[in-house]
Amino acid sequence: MDLIVLRDVSFRYDGTPALVDIDLTIREGDFLAIIGPNGSGKTTLVKVALGLLEPSAGSVEVFGKPLGEFSDWRKIGYVPQKATHIDPFFPASVEEVVGMALMSNRKPRARSGREGRGEILRALDEVGMADYGKWAIGRLSGGQQQRVFIARALVTSPRILFLDEPTTGVDAETQGSFYDMLDRLNSREGLTIVLVTHDIGIVNKHVTSVACLNQRLVYHGSHEDFCRSAVFRDMVSRGDHLIAHEH
Amino acid sequence: MPAFLTYGFIQRAFLAGVFIAVACAVLGLFLILRKDAMIGHGLAHIAFAGVALGLFLNVLPLAAALVVAVAAAVAIIKLKDRAGLYGDTAIGIFSSLGLAVGILLASMARGFNVELMSYLFGDILAIEPLEVGLAVALAAAVLLTVRMNYAKLLYMTFDRESARAAGVKVGRLDVLLMVLTAVTIVLGMKVVGILLVAALIVIPAAAGLQVAASFRMAVRTSITVAVVSVGAGLGLSLALNIPASAAIVIFCFLAFGIFSLLKKGRGSADRRK
Fold first, then answer.
1. Is residue B189 part of a domain?
2. Which of A62, A186, B18, B259 qualifies as a cystine partner to A70, CB 3.0-4.6 A?
3. Alpha-carbon gap, residue B5 to A7, rounded angstroms
């Protein structure tokens, strides 16, 4: 099933093109990496797909509906690029942070404290943070916060998860277990994952398909074909701010 | 029950004061965390124009202030969005305009009369039964609206972009929060006056934020500080025959000081561990 379809999408920031004529389909079960040099439009593409930015041209379809008519946002999880750049003094416990997404998508009468808490704890358990529910979010490390934000994105049981450079500033060991967790969610739970990254090591080890952007979509296909493609060789030879970690 | 608590005017003052204090404390938390704490000052100045308009037109000043403050709250949001102004700039423009219009109207209505002074400095002990009913009903409506939108308001305050991506209509909630604040500010005028009402929004919430490890705890602490300050301020005002508004705000500040010291003490203890 096609979960997200972008047709001839263009986007301009104050007249400067950020995306040009993008045609991209994200299918159920994909583990898609969106890669490209700095300023290539990766984050913009994700924001357009989520309806956070309105395209200057073209159309976006989400779960078979035009974006403007789509309302079941529980099906989509999102962890933004600067998720961990939070106010460290914000008075929110880990359970409250995860609960925000769950309760925001429910009618007040449908809230059942016990049921809601159960879902929150399950989501925290999924990311290995079940023991930190009462902690203030500001007391956690960057890696732990990132896991909490993944739990927040997972708590509504989404069918697709967008992650925008989720491990920036996170140590290598934590990154390894983080991507193993994404692998498990994708392969065992069938969660579709869209990952914006600079890290070619992650692309090589974890994803199943690649979309390479440079304002235009210069490649979209399987990871294996991408590694053999001229696009990949060009990117590596230009040193397009790609990094390579072993995870 | 102490004899003085049997007086109707004291019961009315306490009832209205508690409801309004709770609404102020809850809204104050969202406003401070959104870095919109100064909206209280701005809307209070604008409400002054509404009170003056009410007195000038000989209609209920509280009702006139309500209309003017709500309209200005919406205008501030629109000006901020459309003119690309920073929050404080739009507040500065409208609060100055409100004060100027208020002074002009007061002057046209032959100066500052006793009633206008009661709104400037607050006179909770003189609150009328009609005003109590209005205050309790509106404060209850404010709290119910916050309760119904609690998770969305919290999500938007904590992480606006993720909230939008989760389908939260942040633009509508911005307007809702400003309208609720305008209503609460107008209600608070009678308790502590136009000049001090922002304190009721900011100080209990700031006190709650000193010690809270969760938002729920911050809400509970802020409400406790606000209600205790209103009660203690009223009591001190009756005992010493001093203005209730000033006494309430001073109690709020004392609570803030105590919680700040507690936070500092806890920080030192944590560092020693």
1. yes
2. A62
3. 71
Q: Is A7 helix (H, G, I), strand (E, B) or coil?
A: strand
Given a contact cutoff of 8 angstroms between Cβ atoms, the answer to whether A42 and A213 are in contact is yes
The C-alpha atoms of residue A140 and residue B192 are separated, in whole angstroms, by 40
Residue A246 pLDDT > 50: no
Strand order in the sheet with A76-79: A76-79, A160-164, A192-196, A31-35, A209-214, A216-222
pLDDT in tens, B73-107: 998 888 887 766 765 788 888 889 999 999 898 88
Count, in order, helices (H) and strands (E) of chain A: 8, 10
The mean pLDDT of chain B is 88
B130: number of CA atoms within 13 Å, CB side? 4
Would you list which residues of chain B are within 8 Å, Cβ to Cβ, of chain A? 33, 147-148, 150-152, 154-155, 158-159, 161-168, 208-209, 212-218
pLDDT at A110 over 60: no
Residue A189 has pLDDT above 60, yes or no: yes
> pLDDT tens across B21-61, in order?
999 999 999 999 998 888 988 999 999 999 999 988 888 88
Scan residues 114-143 of A and list those with Cβ closer than 8 Å to B: 134-136
Q: A-chain residues within 8 Å CB-CB of B35?
A: none
* Number of domains observed in the structure of chain B: 1
Q: Interior CA angle at B79 toward B104 and B148, to 5°?
A: 105
In a domain, B270, yes or no: no
* Predicted TM-score (pTM) of this structure: 0.87
ipTM rounded to 2 decimals: 0.85
Q: Which of A120, A125, A94 is nearest to A105 (CA)?
A: A120
CB-CB under 8 Å, A105 with B166:
yes
Q: Which of B26, B144, B145, B162 to mutate to test the interface with A (most CBs of A within 10 A)?
A: B162
Question: Does B152 fall in a domain?
Answer: yes
d(CA B158, CA A138): 12
pLDDT digits (tens, 9 = 90+) for B167-213: 999 999 999 999 999 999 998 887 788 888 889 999 999 999 998 98
Is residue B16 included in any domain, yes or no? yes
DSSP-assigned states of every residue in A51-95: TSS--SEEEEEETTEEGGG---GGGEEEE-TTTT---TT---BHH
Q: What is the mean pLDDT of chain A?
A: 86
Three-state DSSP class for residue B257: helix
Structure tokens at B208: 């709650």
Query: B50: domain range?
Result: 7-265
Cα A173 from chain centre: 20
Output the domain CATH number for residue B94. Answer: 1.10.3470.10
Residues 6+ apart with CB under 8 A from A187: none
Residue B62 confidence (pLDDT): 87
